[in-house]
Amino acid sequence: xxxxxxxxxxxxxxxxxxxxxxxxxxxxxxxxxxxxxxxxxxxxxxxxxxxxxxxxxxxxxxxxxxxxxxxxxxxxxxxxxxxxxxxxxxxxxxxxxxxxxxxxxxxxxxxxxxxxxxxxxxxxxxxxxxxxxxxxxxxxxxxxxxxxxxxxxxxxxxxxxxxxxxxxxxxxxxxxxxxxxxxxxxxxxxxxxxxxxxxxxxxxx
Length: 205
Description:
Layout (H helix, E strand, L loop, with lengths): L15 H16 L14 H40 L22 H13 L5 H7 L4 H18 L38 H12 L1
């Protein structure tokens, strides 16, 4: 006789997605991070995502400041000391300034406006803001100066140059737009009084 083959058809198990989410939430809590950082953004809104990122970045910044940068400083001191012993450097003490990588803003426009307000209110230092964006302040100043000199040489006016234009795109006081005369023409002189009188006499004759 023939044989009958039947494939297994296991019953569906409900609640697996909830079980998986609960497990990942426990893992995230144990790691000290937000659950959304594991990649599941299905139940996330802007506020919860931003709150989770702020807490996560605070933890990373603590690790950078308390663990990584001190360790890098030790290695740097070894390197400088070895260079001084070989005569490459004249001193074994070379100050350093560490800049961590830039964090990508959740809302770049709101972040930029907040930075400007803090700077204008005196609540933050310019160097700290530049470092928080992953740049070395001194290098940033040199590059900005070179860029401004290039703009002046080519007579280019950008909205990003506050020396020439305001945030509304208007020329700053005392700035003459390209192609316009730098000064008004001098008023014409009609000569001395005697010359004027002589002209009138010639006209009468």
